[in-house]
Amino acid sequence: MNILVLDVGTSGMKGVLMDNKGEKLVSTCRKYSVTFMQDGRVEQNPFDWKKAMLGILKEIVAKAETMKVSVDAISLTSQRSSVVAVDHNMNPWGNAIMWQDKRTKDICRELEKENDLIFQRCGAKVNPLFSGSKMTWIRENCPEIYEKTYKFLVIPDYLIYILTGKLCTDYTYGSRSLLMNIHKCEWDKEQLRMFRVDEEKLCDLVKPGSICGETTFEIEKETGCKKGIPVITAGGDQQCGAIGQGVVKEGCLSVTVGTGGFLVTAVNKIPEDLKSDVICNIHAVKESYILESNIITCCSALDWFKREFYENWSYEEMNAEAEKSPAGANGCLCVPYFQGRSTPDWNNDAKGLFANITLGTRKRDILRSLLESIAYEIDNGIWIMNGYKNITEINVNGGLTNSAVFNEIQCNVYGRKILKRGDSDSTVRGAYMVAAVTLGLYDTVEDAFEALDKDHEIKEYIPKDHTVRKYEACRQKMNEIYEQVYR
Hints:
The protein is an alpha+beta fold.
């Protein structure tokens, strides 16, 4: 049985056809971009995702036919908190409000007095990152659209409907809304009242790993992908990425450094001593949860820096340039909150800073300080995570981990060995594993991981004690600057 994984990211969509042993048969991708505006708004045209998905399906099916292999199932994973409002014909009313969008910060500020209750029910404090306040914003600022909206969808809901004609959303996406009770895995009536969202405008909730429907005749006609193929919701991209990195049981931590940064570890139940310095969401592994920390800007900050200061350079050339600056960037420090700070204190007003710049500071020092600051903030999250569960293994993945210099920075900042498994497609692997269990290829996700992981190359990065000590002093200095400026 061959499973086509669709991985919907912030900057592009991947399609990877994998056989019943998890080997890649065919892969392709489509790039797109979001629109960043000066007032903190971030939007994207939903048809970008539809066009990308249909193009991927058509290309994969055509290549598969030449190889004389079939597409037998589709597993879909996606970025989690962007909102699409659609009418009764399932046509979007306009651009999607993206997960990075900050337009709802005033709404969130008004709701902060309810943070204790929100966290108890939903596993996170109120923040513009999550999808619920985006729906509230539409109700308050575009009431005519709110009234005419049939459903509020996140991206995977929209794409699953296009594939199957069925509407649903799984628990992993619901737990990123602040509208779903994570203890009961159902829409919470008090939360709906608080955010002023009508339940009938939300999709039915299903478990991750559910078969949401089958491909339609329209899909077959447009792409060649046969009618009747099961479509599985594998869960959110960070949950799947963590599974692909081995977060299928307690003790393992996945660090994904892409557009944003995400730290994920698994817990079998909601910790009794859970505090609001982390996010607790539903995992894509059956009957388990994740603890998560977020860094809002990672590759997006580096992209900005490249655009403004290294426009004609490749990323490989930038890595070589950063390597010419020593650990600690000759004293230059960056505070990396270019779009605010997420966990642990959810400071939407924080901004990016560069400090300790002298007339001797080189551009390469500023570049290296940016890379180091991302690792410092990740390490802040690791310290918090370790307070809940003893972290015995750290696995790294995501676009920024294609940089060897950044991986060296990471292991020395964390003061621990880090592992990078195979290529950067851990999200694809995780989504494949979830679907493979659903389809009966494996009994559990842990079985699937053990079977697929044994043939992957694993690269280790080992910290150096003197560099670890230097970076620890730098991390503390960065945190002090943040406290002085923003607290």
